[in-house]
Amino acid sequence: MKKPSIVFFDIDGTLYTRDMTLPASTKAAIQMLQDNGTYVAIATGRAPFMFEPLRRELNITTFVSFNGSYVVADGEVIEKHPLETEKIETLQLAAGVNNHPMVFLDHEQAVANTANHAHVAESLGDLKMPYPPVNGSFYKQKDIYQALLFCGQEEEDEYKRTHYVFDYVRWHRRALDVLPKGGSKAEGLRAVTHHLGYTMEDAAAFGDALNDREMLAEAGIGIAMGNALDEVKETADIVTAPVNEDGIEKGLERIGLL
């Protein structure tokens, strides 16, 4: 097993516990990595504005966000893949017929197309995010890197079948990420490693959710958290302890970085 030179961390369920806290052992482990010269980066489905405080706390300036659609290395934007405006409009019209609200995100903010919808409030509330401002034409005014579509699991196949120009990843029982076709965290990892002079074999990646599968499979070492979904564990090389049981620290020890 090659010792990694760069390590990517998912946020929710990986760095953060279920109640959105950063374990002390995780913060200490990342500080040790940095002190030892290992490059540390984030790979998340979140928008950049949603984890800016975490980046400051951990002194991280490189990240894959929006599941690979907006990538920054050492503070410099190196990849951007916005959704096509016309295709967003077509999807929004279909979602409106089904009474399924949407939220649109650029790198600076989230904006909803529907006010006071319970599914939006529940899903974003679980991320400790406030209900977004409402502007039905926001997606026409800004580059949108990810949309959120709020529907049940039994309803998502209709969108996958009729609006297949996008990829969809479920992250909540009420919500799907809407992504550019073919986008993934793995693509973002490739962009970062190439830009910084590493290879994918030099990289380790930690994750727990469905949107982590590609990067765990393609990184040199993929580490699934003990709290990860079974489908995610199957793609990983190693399964560590859950996030709230020092899973990051123990996983880094297993791959020889601590």
From TrEMBL:
GO-annotated cellular components: cytosol
Molecular function (Gene Ontology), one example: magnesium ion binding
Lineage: superkingdom: Bacteria
InterPro entries assigned to the protein according to its UniProt record, in alphabetical order: Cof, HAD-like_sf, HAD-SF_hydro_IIB, HAD_sf
Matches recorded under Pfam families: Hydrolase_3
Protein name per Swiss-Prot or TrEMBL: Cof subfamily of IIB subfamily of haloacid dehalogenase superfamily/HAD-superfamily hydrolase, subfamily IIB
Native organism: Alteribacillus persepolensis
